[in-house]
Amino acid sequence: MRRGARDLLCQCFIYDGQYVANELSLVTTLAIISCPRQTFKISPTQLLSRRNYSFLDDQKLISLLQSCKRTCEITQVHGFMVKTSLDLAPFTLSKLLASSILDTRYAVSIFNEIQHPNLFMFNTMLRGYSTSGDLQQALILFNRIRANTGILLDQFPFISTLKSCSQGNAMRTGCGLHSIILRSGYDLSVNVKNTLLHFYCINGRMEDAHRLFDEFPQQRDLVSWNTLMGGYLCISNASIVIDLFKQICRSGIKFSITSSLCIFSATGDLKFSLGGESLHGYCIKIGFIASINIIAAIISMYGKTGHIYSGHKIFNEVPEKDVVLWNCLINGYAKSGLLEEGLALLQQMKLEKMMPNSSTLVGMLSACAATGSLNIGQCIYGYIKEKNLVLDEVLGTALIDMYSKCGCLNKAADIFDIMRRKDVKLWTAMISCYGFHGQAKKAVMLFYRMEDEGFMPNEVTFLAVLSACSHGGLVLEGIDCFVKMVQEYGFPPKIEHYGCMIDLLGRKGLIEEAYNLIRSLPVERDATVWRAMLAACRVYGNVRLGKLVKRELVESYDEHPTDSALLSSTYAIAGRLMDHKEMVELKDRHIFKEAGLSSIEMDSLGQVHNLGK
């Protein structure tokens, strides 16, 4: 360390009977003073004398550093190290830096005073930046290591920097780092490959992830399999997760608790109750059932497959239940449509003095939104206020969504206004709420306000704005947002975004432009886009384009009653009758539209009645 900094630290003083060193910066001094006296764990007898210092003393110092839980405790050891010149030894200095890494500012103040940091110190700082999510500083430090010709890199700088890219959604930077890894030869390391695999999975690039996975069949370990299965779960492709699990079993690899968690989630998503029950039995056989995480996954699986009472039996057998188990059971009842039972479980939690969290209530609120159970949703909100639960971003988003889908726009807006902390999901939920209720201009204004307050929209946000513009007929605003999404934020449009633009053009009578847009799409078209086009043809009675679109749907996609009904309505609006040949074909196909079903809450008990069949 530089001599000037050491001279400052050597001016030690006694604070409440314990050694405390003057610090390099005001940050650390304040940390010392703010630390409560009665909670100091480091006493003068623990601090070693420099005389007759040995390897055993090194181990004592390391043990002392590991016992420090707060910065104000680490500073005392740091002061002693400076006073006894232990900060000049790379080994002990490296251990000090590693102990300080949870407080990035303090760790940086130490690191900046090191004249010749070694690779361990660089890796420690990279790990700290990765943990704190500071991608920019991680990249600066990574490039500094590469520029230092006196240091031979190992795998860890690549791993830590890739993790920073994963947390920062820096797709291009991560791909660039991948190319550096290939050139440097570290692509042979299974740890680096697994980190790359995680990077592609977390960014939703599953084709690239699977291609990378296939490139090292001999080097795969269980982490590789679990990472790929987790990636497919994130994009809701549970069938591939099942296939990968079968490959694990055939390969002779013993799967872990993490593997089991993935497969339980996949079987639940596929409603594959037999597979879930079989895996449940096998977990009992091999002892995985002792894990609280496995029990939570099993309860969740039974809730998804419609066997929530089986999940409740398992819940009752657990002697010590935590809030996660309660959440899984309550969400299982909510997904099964048993909202009253879920509400009763909330009361049971209260009796057992178990404090719920936001996740406890989000599943219930989502079920209320899906069924229109406004009374139960309001009871949950009353429960939140009664228990003085923190209205965080997740819970606020769920409340806005519930009030929106239950028809209470004003109450949704009130929740949004009282939220002190907002994230992009909360803004998106409120924008969707305005669009859902036909307030397209307010949705667009809220989007611009979101930008003005410094929040960065994501692809879902733009989809909500475009949908609102489509339903409100705001062509110019919709085109402006679409261009902003591509040019300013760099999001490649997905088929859903194009579908909104086609619907927007169609609703304003720009049918030819909408049709040309479909024909020139750079992404794969789907039936939804063509049906949006067919609906626009119906509105304006454009039989010629309607027939072209109908032919495209018949040739490329499965037959759907909506297609024939829309074309028939197009003829009616145009004042024409369908050709005899078309009417015969329609009759021969025996296409019938399924009867609709509506649900409405009609009484004060929150009972939802289904009507229409």
Sequence-ordered SSE layout with sheet pairings:
Elements: H1 3-9, E1 12-15, E2 18-21, H2 26-34, H3 55-67, H4 71-83, H5 90-99, H6 104-111, H7 119-132, H8 135-147, H9 156-167, H10 171-184, H11 190-202, H12 206-214, H13 222-234, H14 238-251, H15 257-269, H16 273-286, H17 292-304, H18 308-317, H19 323-335, H20 339-351, H21 358-371, H22 374-386, H23 393-405, H24 409-418, H25 424-436, H26 440-452, H27 459-472, H28 475-488, H29 495-507, H30 511-519, H31 527-540, H32 543-556, H33 561-573, H34 580-588, E3 598-601, E4 608-611
Helix pairs in contact: 2-4, 3-5, 6-7, 7-8, 7-9, 8-9, 9-10, 9-11, 11-12, 11-13, 12-13, 13-14, 13-15, 14-15, 15-16, 15-17, 16-17, 17-18, 17-19, 18-19, 19-20, 19-21, 21-22, 21-23, 23-24, 23-25, 24-25, 25-26, 25-27, 26-27, 27-28, 27-29, 28-29, 29-30, 29-31, 30-31, 31-32, 31-33, 32-33
The total count of strands amounts to 4
Q: What is the terminal-to-terminal distance? A: 80 Å
Strand order of the largest sheet: 1-2
What's the rounded overall pLDDT mean? 82
What's the tally of helices?
34
Instruction: Round the Cα radius of gyration to an integer and report it.
Output: 30 Å
Q: Looking at the structure, what is the overall shape?
A: globular
Strand content: under 5%
Low-confidence stretches: 1-52
